Amino acid sequence: MNKNTSNVHEKTEKSDFLTMDRRTFLKTAGLLGASVFLGTYKTELVSALALSETKILWLHGAECTGCTESLLNGGDPDVLVALQALNAKLAYHETLLAGQGIFVDGKPANTSELNSEILVDELIAEGNYILVVEGAIPNGPEGSGRFFMVGNRTFKELFAKAAGNATAILAVGTCAAYGGINSASSAIAELTDYRGVAFTKNNSYGGMLQELGINKPVINIPGCPSHPDWMLLTLSAVVLGKIRIPGDLPSVLDSYGRPKAYFDEDVHDECPRHDYYEDEEFDTEIGGHKCLFKLGCKGKHANADCSIRKWNGGTSMCIQAGSPCIACVEPGFPDSARPFYMQGGGSSDGGESDGGESDGEKSDRRRGDDGDSSDVDSYDDGSRRDSYYRRGDD
Ligand code: SF4
Ligand code: SF4
Description:
By secondary structure, the chain is of the alpha/beta class.
């Protein structure tokens, strides 16, 4: 546990978090690791949720399963302990489901116990679930979504059905949040047309939900992969109703739909090598111990609490392990971080940048609860929709 976390833990140890106001809760949850948070409040969590079981439906789009790996590697608590503490049921998760098949012993399997297509359709029909999406959603070719088939239907169709009946939607990992590596500039990017759930890159009107005409708020938990604490703590806050959807979202999320509790810090500001940056002492080869800026570190453009929270149970993080930050949590990733490991590049939105971003631009980007945001925006066809984020594309 780092010093910041330790202090917060001591201060909040005796607090009844169920009576905390929303802002205090989010600040507390944001600073505590998932392990400390769930361990401290386990009794209250279980009693608060004793009468309700929350279902989680987790879909895998185009991705490497890295976010699920990250969640499983979280370890403390492991995902089973966390779900138990939350009284939540992982009702559908393709990586973790028991073996299923269309045919069993040569005969068609027509029950939800044996056939995952039937299972997911039954769960969607029942409703009352939190939808977690990991991975991007291809719209190509030509809007058909047929570049990604799951059984007899496109992933686009499955996502539309699941999103339409969900009580809340979380997009975990940069692929689901913004398209990620799938949406990187390439000769075939236009043809494949990969979308994030609510955003594509920094465009809050370019996600798959907008393409489908579904008006639902989404919480983005980016990262390549996402941190287990970011996923578990956000899920906890949603399950507990500590983030009320949609009412709290404009104040809780930044302009790119990320919880400000975890994505408000710059990696650079609290970087363990920051003193070397101030003293202009830079490494020019991988393997040193000084600032990695000249080796392409994009920590100045990465909004995430990695430097404070750390990874692997709070032991280390990319820069500490000697790797320049590639700003994997930003909407423009990976284009915005190119070239990797070379000085230059670095922006949030995928556009060109010389690495400079004024403090004013930073605070404008982070602001999610003021400024000129309106509650209602318009689609291109003139219809109206609620706006849950400040626009990121204007
Ligand atoms: S290593 Fe990267 S994040 Fe750390 S001080 Fe240098 S430029 Fe900033
Ligand atoms: S330090 Fe940078 S590259 Fe590493 S996880 Fe954090 S934002 Fe991503």
